[in-house]
Structures are given as C-alpha cells and as structure tokens.
Design brief:
The chain is built from nine helices and eleven strands. The chain is an alpha/beta fold. The relative contact order is 0.18.
Length: about 240
C-alpha cells in the first residue's frame, strides 16, 4: 500500500500562539514532528499541510516537504482531504498532529499494519491508558471505550466508562493520530456534521454516527502533546536527555 503522512499545522493557538514554530532543542516543533514521522518505515512521503507561509517556509528551509492549503477549512479533516485530493495514487493517509514532537515512528508503522490485516478497515487511531485521576477528569483528554475486537464504541470528553463499580475497566485516552483509506477520507470529509460530534466537539464521532467502524490501537508509548509553555519546557527537557544519551 502506498502511504503518505500529513501533518496539519496552523499558526494560531489559543494557549500557545505560534506553536508550530516554537523551538525544541533549537529546532521548530513542526520540524521535530516531521523528522520523527518521516522515520516511519511504511511511509513513502511526509508532508506538512499549512495555511501559513511562516510555517511553510520553516519546513522548506529545514529540508522538509510542505504544501500550502486553503485558510477557510472548518476542520482538520477538510485540510487533510485537500491534500489527499492531490495524491490519487495513494492508498492510505496517516494524520499526525503537529504538536506531537515525541511521536514514535514505529507506532505509525503499527497503525498502518492494521490495514494489511483487515481489507475492510477504513479508519484507525490510537489510545493509551490513563491512570492519573486529574488526567482522567480533564475534559481536554478525550476518552475512548472499545469492544472486544478493539473497535471504538464511543469517544467523550467526559470520563467513560462511568466508575459505578471501580476497578472493572481501565480508562483510555484517545491520541489524535489517524490513518484512513484515501477514498473513505474523501467521503468522510463531505459528510455533514452530526449531533454527537457537535455536542462533544469531536470529529471522529461523525464516523461512528454514520455507522463506520474505527479500529483503536492500544499503545504504551509516551505521548506529550504541546499545548502550553509548561508542555514546551517539559518536551525540551526530554530532548536534552535524548541528545545527551
């Protein structure tokens, strides 16, 4: 299967303006994400998709590949679909968020491999177990519950499952890394927003409400999304240790 990785990146951010260009060990964050994603063995091409010339230029100057996209996309899925429209010979599109500078290349490969095992699979994503109570209660951490075959039953900003009987089920955090078959992605982007999607402000619920399955890959990898200055400082410390090891 021919697979490309797309990293959407917008300059604006409520909590951390100019986030993609914040430096991590002297390199813009978007370039750190690009570096790690491009190391995935099953990816043939990695592209940063942006509507901002500053980000576009930073990636190009770094030696990466970038594509300017429209500025009026209402969702990240729409931006992804614009890129997919330019690659008609591609089978899979992997979406890596531009604020995940610790993304593991092997995880991207594991996500892609799910599609080799299931020819009917249209969409897949990642989850990791949450154990800290504050993290579980934080509505910014999207939670997911799955069936016995690891297909998503529901995503929510609330704690799911509700702990009526404690210790019966683990709580899993959804990680915003997706893989789609290209034709499904183009169809998905054209679907109208759905009630649950609008209520939770979670695009992936649109797929579930329309009857499509989402496979969930469980991972023990470390995920540190950068949303605040504190997150940025923490990731810089991790990179210092990586560079000194």
């Amino acid at each position: 299967m021919k697979t490309i990785c797309v990293i959407p990146a917008r300059y604006s951010s409520t909590r951390l303006p100019g986030k993609p260009l914040k430096l991590i060990a002297g390199v813009p964050m978007i370039c750190r994400v690009y570096d790690r994603a491009a190391k995935a063995k099953l990816i043939e091409k990695t592209i940063v998709a942006t509507d901002d010339e500053r980000i576009f230029n930073a990636v190009k100057e770094y030696g990466g590949e970038a594509m300017m996209t429209r500025a009026d996309h209402p969702t990240g899925t729409d931006r992804l679909a614009e890129v997919a429209n330019n690659f008609s010979d591609t089978d899979l599109i992997v979406n890596v968020q531009g604020d995940e500078p610790l993304i593991e290349p092997s995880l991207i490969d594991d996500l892609i491999a799910l599609f080799d095992d299931d020819k009917d699979l249209q969409m897949a994503t990642v989850a990791t177990e949450l154990k800290d109570e504050m993290e579980i209660k934080n509505p910014n951490n999207v939670k997911v519950v799955t069936d016995f075959n690891n297909y998503a039953l529901y995503f929510s900003r609330s704690q799911i499952p509700y702990p009526r009987n404690t210790g019966k089920s683990a709580v899993y955090k959804h990680i915003g890394i997706y893989a789609y078959r290209r034709e499904f992605l183009l169809k998905y982007a054209k679907m109208s927003p759905t009630p649950l999607e609008q209520s939770e402000s979670l695009e992936q619920l649109r797929a579930l409400e329309n009857g499509y399955k989402i496979k969930v890959l469980h991972s023990n990898n470390q995920f540190v999304g950068v949303d605040t200055e504190e997150d940025l400082a923490y990731v810089n410390e991790i990179y210092k240790k990586l560079n000194n090891s």
